[in-house]
């Protein structure tokens, strides 16, 4: 119980306490901010108490009095215990405000003197609790925080419910949590006020589980291990943390096919129910727990004759989930299966796997079970596992192939051909394909401790380098060692020089050096008969030449596409297909680029090539963004970012593209955050190439957010970086027009014209028509800034038409917007004797084009400009300078909402003008109040009038 005598500024939320719960935390926080109550519900261990504590800490400062209780199962039989926790320390404060009979009844219940009961003092007690809450609320807002409502003693629950239903407008709010398995939370709602928001906490996804484990210090864990933890825990944060703790305390990590160590604390949750099974039913469930997709047919084939009756018994105990339409059996929670398997003796587990090695219908499953049933080395078992791994690879399941490869290596005798380390390296390469870089690196490092054959050592080093991703600076010391291992073998040297080409680009930022290394690698590979490495090197050379604007780029692309092709290289994100895509998109051939990348994406998904899928999703999003399909681009970019974060691959690049998509079709504040995240990734990795892309995305987001000065700072740095890198093709980053436009906005038309002239020379040489059109749009703004309004309007009209014909829908809409703003500004200028500008000053065409693109942030700008009239550039004229200064610390959306409130707009009017919901307006205003240290719309209006709030 906490009592506060004065109002306090609510502290900021603490996301470290609510990992994976940010959205529902915000929703609950907004509900409390509106004066409502919140009921959190979900299964045991799902994090209700954590979120409850975080909300209470975040919002509790807004209440004068905070009353707390936390019930337990062992004390739930004691009447009035929760009531004593809530009111025990404030009884003296409220007793004087209660009528005599109510005071006597409440004191008797809280102290235990007088043997008060609901049956004898029911009405007096009920009214006493209601009166006590009203008395506290008369001095200031009251927050009641109650955890574990399911254990609340019946008397306290009845009294709280009576008061909650009758509080009306009294400033008393309730923040409660209750354990529920399904949606039966509604039976607890009578103990809460009528306006209570019920919030269900569901399982965390894999990325959130990874963040939670990392936050608690359970690192480093491989992504395959995190995947197993997520699967076994079912996304339950308590279970995940317990599994992580058990792994951290275990002297050795489980090998492929072995279960995670399930700690006693978790086994106890399910073993009590398992003990109620018959021995035969328990054996049947053990077989089900060992199978990948257990069915009744599989159980029968494995020798479980009475599977129907035994699984029915398990279902009746809540151990199996019942679904008549699903053929596969499913445990009620994955932890039940894990605990059952972990509890079984090793000999019994091997017997189960032996039965399943003949019962399973899938050859991959049969091989896996055979391996887990076999001890020691066995060349026949190893061969079957290797064959199963190849089949998994062909099916597009490289993660399964990697697991099978490690099992094969374990059962391979040391003197066999292929040997155990060769099979381990194949598993490592499969892990790379599956996006499990940390597992691949660990395998390769282990092989390097023993390998003496140059080919095996170079192969292992290649895995180590590939696993580093963009962070090649971290493995810089590897290159002298791998060159020494390669000796003078052209086949091995080709692989090394291919990686040196990447090093030259990523670490040194030298395109010319990278191009030379790639060409040398292609030559060595051709000499050594390694067609795969030759094609990869040629593809890299072609991409580098494209970015450099090198005249040989088209010819190198053709060489990279020449037959015979390697199927793996053909669909790899650094292969010939990717090089062709880059050439197409930079040459303004958007339909061809879309068809190319869509086909590549389909193929890598079929093969399970996770890293390539991350990049191809990003490439397709980029294509859709250029085409003006901004909503589709946003969906693809978010999917790429989710996959990147889940796999730990390409996070910076995906964050960069997601920033561009968010700024065009989503949330501008999120776009700014993502661009800074991408820049941080590139800085940490030492990747100058992607740093320039990230800063270009940041500059664009800043332009959309209405901060041209920041745009100029970001894009000037991009210009310096790309000049140093030797990137001359303006079709790559396409930031040049944004820099020129921002320079005009801050009053630097001379520098803007210099940017336009320099970029135009390269664009003309390379035939980049869309870039030329965007530069002409920027030059029209330069002319308008110099007073040449008529020439600017004529040029913008032509630019809009050209961009439309090229298929650049968003750029076309931006040209229409610039044209409408220019006409609107010109209409306000004195026209002494001059002929009027062609076309009416209307924003309808720009709004139509942005709406077609689903470019919501731009649509909001159009609406604001149309509402403001001829003074569209800069803040609305009705907003005084003192108010603008006060809004400086707000985010872009918050500034827009606050400015419209200053103009007198209602929440519904604001929602309509900004294309957002009324609920979003209310939530935004709540944040504005907190940041500005005010309490209501009236205070915002006072800011507009230049008066100080009190």
Automatic annotation (TrEMBL):
GO terms for cellular component: cytoplasm. GO terms for biological process: regulation of DNA-templated transcription. It comes from the Bacteria. Transmembrane segments: none annotated. It holds the Pfam family GerE. Keywords: ATP-binding, Nucleotide-binding. One of its GO terms (molecular function) is DNA binding. Residues 883-948 form the HTH luxR-type domain. This is Transcriptional regulator. It comes from Streptomyces qaidamensis.
